[in-house]
Amino acid sequence: MKIPYPIFSDQKILVLEKNDSQRTTLIMYLKVIGVGTVVEAANGHQALALLDGNAQEFDFTICDLRMDGMDGIEFLRAAPRAKIGRVIFSSAVDDELLSSAEEIVRGYGIRLSGRLSKPIDFLYLKSLISPVLNPQKAEYVYRKRLQFQCWTKEDLSIALRRGQFVPYFQPKLDFLTGAPVGVEILARWMHPDHGVIAPSQFIPLMESAGLIDQLTEDLLCNALGCTKKWYSDRPEISISINASPLTLENIAIPNRWLAIVNAHQVNPERITIEVTETALPKNYRGLLESVTRLHMHGFSLSLDDFGTGYSSLQQLSQMPFNEVKVDQSFIAAARKYKRSTVILRSMVDLAKKLHLRTVAEGIEYETDVTLFQELGFDVGQGFHFAKPMSGEDLVRWLLIEKMTPRRVPNVISIPNISQLAKPDRGHKAFMWG
Ligand code: C2E
Ligand code: CA
Ligand code: CA
Question: Is the CB of 242 under 6 A from ligand 1?
Answer without folding.
Answer: yes
